[in-house]
Amino acid sequence: MFCKAKLVSFAAAVALLGATVASADSDHDHPAGLLMYPKISVDVENGVDTRLHISNVSNNPTMAHCFYVNANSHCTNTGEVCDTFQDCNDSGIFGACVPGWIETNFDIFLTSRQPLGWLASEGLAGDELPCRATFLNPNPCGVNQGSNSGTRIPPISETPFIGELKCIEADQTTRLPVQCSGDNCPNSLTGKAAITSAELVDVASYRAAGLEQVLNDGDENLQIGGIDAEYEPCAEVLVMDFVYDGAIDPISETFEASSELTLIPCTQDFRGQTLPPVTAQFLVYNEFEQRLSTSRRVDCLLDSRISSIDTGSPTRSIFSVNVGGTITGQARIRGVGGGLAGVALLSLATDFTDPDSRVGWAAYALDTVVRTEDADTISLP
């Protein structure tokens, strides 16, 4: 009975949350030339990992040039991963908890119509590759189908880890986008991620956000949207349908809802290792269309329980059921200073303020309701 109640609850929650997203402009239902996975979470000690998938949907071999972004903060005194300065206690002396932004790039060579998957904690290379060419067997998966040779997916650099992944369809020699125009531009990639936990039966799975190439001059500066766009625009406004934190699940009548939100900026300078300041503005509506608002700066990556976005007291948040007054709500998230991509994770727990008490979870990508007219840029190293 317990498992049945939990699974029915999540089925109801997903149906409920998807009711208004259907009218949004989805970035997740078509092949693309640029993929964004907003949330990769790994904590080996506590059994949390992320399985990543990328697929080539075309009949031709292709390559993805990818970038892991490590968004962990670190203690200035110990170098350890931290959330706040309280994690930086070294024999009674506290250091600062400083946000970080470190990228690691790698290549994935995909054969015709090939899906490929790996655990973020382990990576994928060598004999683990299903179509690895050798001198004696140069076409392991068929003539003209390509091979996985040259693929080197490293494991994430440390654990615990919170970060993102971006992958760009690229020329197999230059590692830069193919010079193209209109229908000649390759848009062959799809992707998804699944966050797993040894403690939970459920898998929090979401589809990667994809942007199609519309024109490309083949250099290291990628223009997303704007005049002379090389890729379709990023989102200026994202929609997140959610269950208010602390709301009692109406199916089990036992567990409390708790949601996490992850946002990443579309603009990134991998060459100069810099990020622009982007502010996320939130308009939050309850079921009676009463509106409240807040804002939060997105530095590299925002990963937060929704009821901690605007306050240190979750029960007083505009995302709390105590303030919202209804079971579900909707947030419209506008990026100021750049476009955004994001994913949300809904959990059920015995205490919504305690992540260790959750009994199940489900993830869903945020959809676009307005695309930005301004240009975002990605600068490749």
Strand order of the largest sheet: 9-3-13-1-17
**Oligomerization state:** single chain
Average pLDDT, rounded to a whole number, is: 90
Say how many strands there are.
30
Which keywords apply here?
single chain, mainly beta, 2 domains, five-stranded antiparallel sheet, 2 helices
Concise summary:
By secondary structure, the protein is mainly beta.
General description of the model:
The chain is mostly beta strands. It folds into 2 domains: 1-27 and 235-371, no CATH class; 28-233, no CATH class. The protein is 6% helix and 44% strand. Strands 9-3-13-1-17 form a 5-stranded antiparallel sheet, with no helix packed on it. The model is unreliable at 1-16 and 18-23 (pLDDT under 50).
Q: Secondary-structure map with pairings?
A:
Elements: H1 2-18, E1 34-42, E2 48-56, E3 62-70, E4 73-75, E5 81-82, E6 89-90, E7 93-94, E8 97-99, E9 102-110, E10 115-119, E11 124-125, E12 152-153, E13 161-170, E14 180-181, E15 189-197, E16 204-207, E17 209-211, E18 215-216, E19 221-224, E20 235-243, E21 256-265, E22 268-269, E23 278-286, E24 291-298, E25 302-305, H2 321-324, E26 328-336, E27 340-349, E28 358-365, E29 367-371, E30 376-379
Parallel strand pairs: 22-30
Antiparallel strand pairs: 1-13, 1-17, 2-10, 2-15, 3-9, 3-13, 4-5, 4-8, 6-7, 11-12, 14-18, 15-16, 19-30, 20-26, 20-29, 21-25, 21-27, 23-24, 23-26, 27-28
